[in-house]
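Design review, sub-item: ligand-bound model
Attendees: FS, YL, KQ
YL presented the inputs for the guanosine-5'-triphosphate complex:
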Amino acid sequence: MQTTMPDIADTAPALRTGKLDWVGMGEIELPFIFESRNIAPVNVIAKARAFVNLHKEDAKGIHMSRLFLALDTLSTEQQVNPQTLAQALDAFITSHDDLSDQAQIEFKFELPLRRKSLLSGKVGWKNYPIHLIAKINQGVLSFELMIDVTYSSTCPCSAALARQLIQNAFSEKFAEQNVDKQTVLEWLGTTDGIVATPHSQRSIANVKVKLDSQIDSFDVVGLIDALEAELKTPVQAAVKREDEQEFARLNGQNLMFCEDAARKIKGLLEEQNYADYWLQINHYESLHAHDAVAIAVKGIAGGYTA
Ligand SMILES: Nc1nc2c(ncn2[C@@H]2O[C@H](COP(=O)(O)OP(=O)(O)OP(=O)(O)O)[C@@H](O)[C@H]2O)c(=O)[nH]1
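KQ shared the predicted structure:
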């Protein structure tokens, strides 16, 4: 005998009535194929969050399974790009006809990219943490992209102090007026010659940009390339000695405080005309046990706040 299952989402009274901003699911494990400009579609495993608003005050709840299954379609039958995300958001809304008029999907995943060494021509994998958010609000789409770029920052203050120690050591070692070039050259190649080195630290730029809602494709690699080119000292994948030496030169020629890195990235994002942006620079200090942090936003009305 077939029995009808109770469906309390439709029949039970809400314990208490009222609108809710977002209702849905978090920490959904979701493999999918991600599409972005200038790379082949790539398999990633994301942690997803899926939400709709609940604007019907007396409804018991939303239909979680409908969101979950729409995400499953995205994962198994489609590739993730702006169009398919828009379709999934549309499915969220149409399956919650009288309950919701806003929806959002968030994905956090690591994007593995082949990155070239500085000089030797070797190539290796580097993973970039990506956070992608797609929203629809009464028919209006919006996309946000967050990327973390890891780089090395050498302290300009420490570099100046180290240079002074090197000058002092030179002055002490070569008191006479005329010094022999070969002797100085050899001395410079010793730890007595370069008596001090500045400290550098592994640093991370967290960058969030608001994308144009009309975009036909994501361009994650374009943004990563631009950020790394601006910072000039991104951490490397494959490294031979010639690459390491070039990295040392790049560090020496691009000394930066967290303020310098923040202003560089701010300038880049201004040039690239993003509708809005937020950035946080984190220098994980080797001089201190605490971090140096700088934050900046575009500063538009109703936009991101610092
Ligand atoms: N709304 C809601 N559902 C929850 C929650 N926690 C678990 N669920 C379960 O999510 C499941 C899916 O709900 P629905 O999408 O309404 O499932 P369904 O009634 O089989 O699907 P439809 O026939 O499409 O409505 C139900 O079994 C709920 O019990 C919660 O906090 N809120």
